[in-house]
Amino acid sequence: MFSREDIEQRASLYAARRGVSIERRLGFGKDGSVFQTDLPTAVKVFARPETYKRERACYQRLADFAVEEIGGHAVPRLIAWDDELLVVEMEIVSPPYLLDFADAWLDRAPDFSDEVIEQWHEDKQEQFGERWNEVQLVLAFLQGEYGVFLLDINPRNITFGERED
Asked: Can you tell me the distance from the alpha carbon of 18 to that of 139, in angstroms, rounded to the nearest whole number?
């Protein structure tokens, strides 16, 4: 795991390499931090190589298919990346949107027990309430059309209408 200082240093180095400026931190979580540049774009600096590789691969897959939205949810367009610094740069999108592919898998779902899958569905039903059926349709389309199995979904990374914070 990288420190907050390390993540900020890598964000600054990435920005210098790209000739952009980091304006502000947009957010942070278990996978790293997201910063806004002066373009404006979003720069996500990852804490772990495996989550960086998964997210980059998913955004590359979606870029290959020129995906801009799924089920009415905007999907950020991949701008650039840096394998050394573990950074992905993407466009900034407005709600409703679908983002955060660090815990996504390509072409196959991870192997979880039936109990874990059942608990996951119960947790997501509770988080999304009456919107859970809509979320499931978006996830099914993402899997069926693009082979992306998205696991880390919550009302902050799949939104409906105005941002639900």
From this structure: 33
Number of domains in the chain: 1
Compute the mean pLDDT over every residue in the chain, rounded to the nearest whole number: 93
> How many Å apart are CA 161 and CA 65, to the nearest integer?
25
- The helix (H) or strand (E) run that includes residue 84 is none
- The answer to whether position 87 is within a domain reads yes
d(CA 139, CA 135) in angstroms, rounded, equals 6
- Contacting residues for 160 by C-beta, under 8 A, at least 6 apart: 95, 96, 131, 134
Q: What is the CATH number of the domain that holds 96?
A: 3.30.200.20
104 lies in some domain: yes
The average pLDDT across 37-58 equals: 96
pLDDT grade for 164, boundaries at 50, 70 and 90:
very low
